[in-house]
Amino acid sequence: MTLRPTTPDSPALPRRLALLLPAALAACAQPAAAQRGLPDFADLAERVLPAVVSIQVTSREGAGDQRGGPVERGRRGQLVQGAGSGFIIEPSGIVVTNGHVVGNATRVTVTTQDGTDYVARVIGADELTDIALLRITPRAPLAAVSLGASGTMRVGQWVMAAGNPFGLGGSVTSGIISARGRDIGAGPFDDFIQTDAPINPGNSGGPLFSMQGEVIGINTAIYSPSGASAGIGFAVPSDLARPVIEALLRGGRVDRGWLGVSVSDAEEQGRRQRGALIMGVERGSPAARAGLRQGDLVTALNGEAVTTSRALVRGVAVLPPGETVRLTLQRAGRNQEIAVQIGRRPGEG
User: Fold this and answer.
1) Which of 54, 204, 210, 229 is flagged as catalytic?
2) How deeply is 9 buried, as exposed, middle or buried, from its count of CB atoms within 10 A (0-12, 13-18, 19+)?
3) From 59, 85, 126, 130, active-site residue
4) Cα dihedral value 8, 9, 14, 18, nearest 10
5) Exposure pattern of 143-167 as b/e (b: 16+ CB <10 Å)?
6) Fewer Cβ atoms within 10 Å of its own Cβ: the N or the C terminal residue of the chain?
7) What residues pair up with 331 in beta bridges, in sequence order?
8) Alpha helix locations (H) across 49-201?
9) pLDDT at position 186, please?
10) For 153-169, how does the pLDDT look when each residue is reduced to its tens digit (9 = 90+)?
């Protein structure tokens, strides 16, 4: 038997296959990403990167990217240099970043993508959500990006992270949303977007973009045994960040409600109960003045069910100080309601 080379014009090649081959060869010439249906981030990066900034911080104590950013100490340990990321939300020069990036900085410098340095002023910061707002004064309007609706994002959707990893300057990475609503033990407002888009030290405060070019998260923390990206990064959702940013713009601070109690999740015979169990009441606090006691089980706030201690803390924190609310609780096996005038969280402002 004689073997013949199979070419498009060979009589040994079936006509149907011969007609398909040119199209197949053309497909092979296309980029591999296009063949697999993967997105191309080039246009997105070109559009949004001008609004992404690098942040350099000088502080007398631990400022900068405390969750793993590049840090150098002075000879006598008096000054700390740190680096992080941010993004411009108003062309006049309003920059969003993480609170832990600026910390208690004595000097903050913002560098735009074209290499221009600006001395920044800290407008305000919110410790519970780890969000800070900076102001710079450009000679002309700057490129800016807008906050999207993080609540519409789904697990598995593509995202792009941008920032200043390891102090290298403007960089982008891509991945998907791995999970939503993550609690990493950072505070009562934990509601993080988890992503496998590589986030490294120095990326803190940078934006997490949807494919439409909207900021749907603020990159804040990573889970990493080595200190570098292990494919698990966390971003503050834009829906949580938006009211905080608006409050900081209005007055430089976020006023949060406060009861003055320590709480835990309730258990009975080894089974978790719905509600928040009061473990202690601070002397002179709004809770003390209202007559709340250790052992009370709070089950509702203004008629809305309270299922966990975390839900009570968050529900109270979003209330304006001075507002009177109605707490439903169980005490000695009996249900009752108590009116409490919410106080201002100590240390705010």
Assistant:
1) 204
2) exposed
3) 130
4) 30
5) bbbebbebeebeeeebbbbbbbbbb
6) N
7) 334
8) 99-102
9) 80
10) 999 999 999 999 998 88
Instruction: Encode burial over 244-273: b for 16+ CB neighbours within 10 A, e otherwise.
Output: bbebbeeeeebebbbbbbebeebeeeeeeb
Least Cα distance to 299 among 329, 263, 332, 325 occurs for 329
* Residues listed for the chain: 349
Which of 291, 344, 296 is CA-nearest to residue 320?
Answer: 344
pLDDT band at 274 (very low <50, low <70, confident <90, very high): confident
Residue reference for tokens 């004064």: 137
| 65 is known as an active-site residue | no
Type of residue at 200: N
**How far apart (Å, rounded) are the C-alpha atoms in residues 329 and 300?**
7
Tokens, residue 229: 């990206």
Tell me the pTM: 0.75
Q: Which of 53, 55, 56, 57 is nearest to 106 (CA)?
A: 57
Residue with tokens 């780890």: 130
How many CB atoms within 10 Å of residue 16? 7
Query: Which residue is catalytic, options 54, 65, 100, 238?
Result: 100
**What DSSP state is assigned to residue 311?**
H
pLDDT digits (tens, 9 = 90+) for 206-227: 999 999 999 999 999 988 887 7
Rounded to whole angstroms, how far apart are CA atoms 156 and 5? 45
Structure tokens at 302: 């203004």
Token pair of 226 as six digits? 């080595």
| Residue 40 among the catalytic residues | no
**Tally of CB atoms within 10 A around 1:** 2
Average pLDDT, the chain: 84
What is the DSSP code (8-state) at residue 167? G
DSSP 57: E
Active site residue 130: yes
Per DSSP, 320 falls in state: P
Task: Name the token pair of 278.
Answer: 């009061």
31: confidence class by pLDDT, cuts 50, 70, 90: low
Is 76 a residue whose pLDDT tops 80?
no
CA distance 301 to 304: 5
